[in-house]
Amino acid sequence: MAYKTIDEFIKRLEEEGELIRVKESVSPFLEIAEINDRLVKNNGKAVLFENTGTEFPVLVNMMGSEKRIAAALNAGRLDEVGDRIKSLFDMLSSPKESLLDKLRMLPQLREIASWAPVKVKGKGLCQKEEIKDADLGKLPVLTTWPHDGGPFITLPVVHTISPVSKTPNTGMYRMQIFDKNTTGMHWHIHKDGASQYREYKERGERMPVTVTIGGDPAYIYAATAPLPENIDEYMLAGFLRRKKVRLVKCLTNDLYVPEDVDFVIEGYVDPAEELKVEGPFGDHTGYYSLEDKYPVFHVTKITHRPGAVYSATVVGIPPQEDAWIGLATERIFLNPIKMTMIPEISDMHMPPEGVFHNIVLTSIKTSYPGQAVKVMSALWGAGQMMFNKFLILLNDNIKLTDYKAVLAEISRNTDPVKDVIFHRGPMDVLDHASEKFAYGGKMGINATNPGTNSTDNPVVDSAACRNIDGVLEVNDGLTKEGIAVLIVKVKKSDGKTTRHIARQIVEQKLITGVKFVVFAEEKSCINDLPDIVWRTANNTDPARDCFYIRNENNEEYPVLFFDATRKTAAADGFDRPWPNIVTMDEKTIQLVDNKWDSYGLGEFTESPSVKYRKQLYNGGAVAEE
């Protein structure tokens, strides 16, 4: 069913036991985010905070489970959406030899036509009421982490239109509130919104922009989807909800928005205006994205539907709600990738610890030499997959969500020298470890060759490893299970770099049959494997930080080392600021502890930040040397 307003989705969640209403007074400043973090990391329910100190309630974690994200997209399970896309592709691409074959297509073609958005006359429900003076301070905008630059709108659907092609675009870009009438517009350089901004700048024209919040969750998802350029996101929304999106004209510009969203924030961006410092922001990487300059969005009008609900999400150390949105993208877009680009792909999975594109596991059917490398090249050239850091190719008999099985397969089937491909290319602007801003290294691991350099019993002299100057701790748990991966916690200093430590390990013959060694930073917990994966994905530039040690004959020892430590100017010559991880402050943790029983959220849940605060570096959003 299509949800006419978000109220209908809230009603469904409540009927299915997936939502809790909190009547206790809560603050949008840190408190809601802290409650959300405790719930989302413990498979908690969606929450509607009814008393926020403003006119409007706040809805969080509405898509924070596989069940809820499927319900949001009008499906019983996510694979249903992918199956619908496959059926559509099969229908359109099958041979049509007879008139009868062509006539059989008419019902499907009518259905496709029914997904197209339609512009309707008059005002929409979303324009029934107006906020005086277009004051953003009337909205319960969340400040989510202590070192954030201010409150941020975190689920905005940003509407723009190309002045050249007249193609509309919707995207999701965080928006920091500067004052009651202006925000930042966090357009990454690779995004369509930024591309259209550059078009307006070249023409010397002011850019109309309208932001919506809420409505059918399909609108929110469609704005995040990695659609090809010039494909209308509301066409995807119509497909997901099986009903066309009805659009109404904005009141102060010529953009169109869904008639039944909760809030409409109209305005403009002036490309001739100086960029303004935005950030920091506790981001989906689990680290702060630091200050940078972005365009300013000027608000000219704010309207809302009667009974509007403010929708928000909180990002930070995974897992968070965005992991489930990423899962939806993974399941929905697998079939189009298979059918239009890479038919040998069997499955694809992005572990939450890889924060979307940093780690991608892909299983394929191989039939000729070099096929895995061909798939790597195709994926690195496909839309947002260009941001991928670690791409791992496996055989199609592996369940990609069974991480121990994946590690065991990599361990069995990979020659760490011959089966690893290094590459360079565009990186996400949020990547703090890349050698340059938005540009860095990538690694492909081909684990599709059964029995390659197989080692059943990797051996580690852990005691001797711990005696190496700079080594703090050794986790040989995986090697004891026959998986050729060793984790070593180190403290770098002058002359005690990870390469120095790696050379001592191999030259002293302290490991046998170990193919991969991960050097974890001193602040990490090396017995927490998901956290080690998360830190490794964030803290490495594969082309710079993944290396071999060579012997006197310039031959690589058959071990690949990963330097997953924090990079500094002193130890690494790294000249970019390094961000801190995202945690809540002690004052807010204590506040929520004290109020927990009054929220009505059930059994007490400890703050995830209690664990992570022990791993903070000195400083605020920027870690101090």
Short description:
With 625 residues, the chain is an alpha+beta fold.
CATH architecture heading of the largest domain: Roll
> Which blocks of ≥5 consecutive residues have pLDDT under 50?
none
Q: Please give the radius of gyration in angstroms.
A: 25 Å
Name of the CATH first level of the largest domain: Mainly Beta
Number of helices: 20
User: How many domains make up the 3D coordinates?
Assistant: 3
The counted number of beta strands is 32
What characteristic shape results from the CA principal axes?
A: globular
Helix content: 25-40%
Quaternary organization: single chain
3D structure, described in words:
With 625 residues, the chain is an alpha+beta fold. It has three domains: 267 residues, Pnp Oxidase, Chain A (Roll); 126 residues, UbiD C-terminal domain-like (3-Layer(aba) Sandwich); 114 residues, UbiD C-terminal domain-like. Helix content is 30%, strand content 22%. It has 20 helices and 32 strands. Strands 5, 6, 7, 8, 9, 10, 11, 14 and 19 form a nine-stranded antiparallel β-sheet that branches. Helix 4 packs parallel to helix 10 and helix 8 packs across helix 9. The protein is globular, with a radius of gyration of 25 Å. The model has no long low-confidence stretch (mean pLDDT 93).
What keywords describe this structure?
about 625 residues; Pnp Oxidase, Chain A; UbiD C-terminal domain-like; 3 domains; 5-stranded mixed β-sheet; 32 strands; about 30% helix
